[in-house]
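REVIEWER CHECKLIST
Item 1: Sequence provided? yes
Item 2: Single chain? yes
Item 3: Sequence as submitted:
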Amino acid sequence: MKRHSFSSPTHDALRVGPSRITGRGLFAGRDIAARAKIGEFEGEVVAIAEARRRAACRKVVAIVELDRKALDARGMRSGFRWINHSCEPNTFMRRTKDRCEFYALRAIAKGEELTVDYGESHHEGRLRCRCGAAGCRGWI
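Item 4: Structure as written out by the authors:
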């Protein structure tokens, strides 16, 4: 099974823990400067059709589609597999044909949960949002 992985000093400082949003979340292990690259999504490289088949069978989806392939992070014990959705996130994703990178939208304090706006997702607007943001859209 082919895996895509990447680490950086910021990425290596991330921690997984209980989330106020849902389940487990990803937390900053140190202060992160605004606009800093935090790291990259890691996972098994699969065809998009296979990723969609897998997503349809799962309650929790940890898949990012790229240009002609997808990254499936199921089974990963750390990393961005644990980043939760927020309608008012503190990070953003930059997807290329080969990678999904995460950057800080603003300064993030050590211990703060990292969040991203999933945007268009495998949930297709059917999953109730639990982010608690003032501007919450209600659905993912």
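Item 5: Key structural point noted by reviewer: The helical segments are 9-12, 48-56.
Item 6: Recommendation: ____
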